[in-house]
Specification:
InterPro entries: Split_barrel_FMN-bd, TR_PAI2-type. By secondary structure, the chain is of the alpha+beta class. It is built from 7 helices and 10 strands.
C-alpha cells in the first residue's frame, strides 16, 4: 500500500474497527496453479480474532471460508499438497491441513468513499488554480500466513468450520443487522442461528467449503480524507459533500472533518 505519512493510520483499534464494520474482504493469492491463473482474488467475509483488544501491538488473526469449487480454493489446496510431497512421515502420506508457503493479502475497504471535484477546494482554486481531482477513501490491508482447512475427514477441519460459520453468522446477525433480541427481550428481532437449520443440511454444506485462518504479520491502514489540503480547502470539501445530500457524501464529509481535527491535533 502506498502510504503518505499524512494519510497513514497506525492506530490498531481503528484498523480493527474498520475490518469489523466492513468485514467483506478481498483475499488475493499469488500461487502457481497447474490449471488456472497465478494471481486470484475472492470476496469473502472475515472474522478478526484478537486476544487483547487494548493491545497496541497485537495484529490478530483473520478467519474465513471459501467454496471448495472456487478455483482459488483449488490452487491453495494444490499448493499445500505439493508442499507436503517431501514428507517422510508415513502417517502424513495423504495431504493434511497446513500453511501456504506464500504470503496472502486481504483488502478491506470502507464503503464511504467518493470522487472529489476541484470545485470543492474553495481556498486554493480561486487563488492559484493549482488543483486536480482526486478520490477520498479508507482501506486496510492485512498480510500474513494462511492455514488452509481442506481435509473433510479431519476433525480439525470440522471443528474449525463449525466454529467459523457459527461465529460469522452471529457477528453478521447481531453487529451488522442489529438483531439482538431474545426470548426475554422481544423489543428487537432475535438473530438467526446455524442451529435453526437441519444438522444434515449444514453437514452437507460444510463439505462444500474450506476454511482459511490467516496469522496477520503486517497491517496497513490508509484514511485519505483531504488531510493533505489546507484548512480552508478541507472546510470547502466538507461543505461540498454535505451539499450533495447523499448518505455516502455525508459520511465522507464527517470523515473529512474528523481527519482534519486529528491533523490539527498532531500539528
Amino acid at each position: 500500500m502506498y502510504l503518505r505519512s499524512v494519510h497513514a493510520e497506525k492506530h490498531l483499534p481503528t484498523l480493527r474497527q474498520l475490518i469489523r464494520d466492513f468485514p467483506l474482504g478481498v483475499i488475493t493469492t499469488a500461487i502457481p496453479y497447474t490449471t488456472g491463473p497465478f494471481i486470484q482474488s475472492s470476496h469473502i467475509p472475515f472474522l478478526l480474532d484478537v486476544e487483547d483488544e487494548s493491545s497496541e501491538t497485537e495484529l490478530g488473526t483473520l478467519r474465513g471460508h471459501l467454496a471448495r469449487a472456487n478455483p482459488q480454493s483449488k490452487a491453495m489446496i494444490e499448493a499445500v499438497s505439493k508442499k507436503q510431497d517431501g514428507s517422510n512421515d508415513a502417517e502424513q502420506a495423504a495431504p493434511f491441513n497446513d500453511f501456504l508457503a506464500e504470503e496472502v493479502l486481504v483488502l478491506f475497504t470502507s464503503p464511504v468513499h467518493h470522487y472529489v471535484t476541484p470545485k470543492f477546494y474553495t481556498e486554493t482554486k480561486p487563488t492559484t488554480g493549482k488543483v486536480v481531482p482526486t478520490w477520498n477513501y479508507a482501506a486496510v490491508q492485512a498480510y500474513g500466513r494462511a492455514k488452509i482447512y481442506f481435509d473433510p475427514r479431519s476433525e480439525e477441519t470440522g471443528t474449525f468450520l463449525t466454529q467459523q460459520i457459527s461465529d460469522l453468522s452471529q457477528h453478521a446477525e447481531m453487529s451488522i443487522m442489529g438483531y439482538t433480541g431474545s426470548a426475554t427481550d422481544t423489543s428487537r428481532p432475535s438473530p438467526w442461528q446455524v442451529a435453526d437449520s437441519p444438522d444434515k443440511y449444514i453437514g452437507l454444506l460444510k463439505k462444500a467449503i474450506i476454511g482459511i485462518e490467516i496469522e496477520i504479520d503486517r497491517l496497513e491502514g490508509k484514511f485519505k480524507m483531504s488531510q493533505e489540503m489546507g484548512a480552508g480547502d478541507r472546510a470547502g470539501v466538507a461543505r461540498g459533500f454535505q451539499g450533495l445530500g447523499t448518505e455516502t457524501a455525508e459520511g465522507v464529509a464527517k470523515l473529512v472533518k474528523e481527519r482534519g481535527d486529528l491533523k490539527k491535533g498532531s500539528d
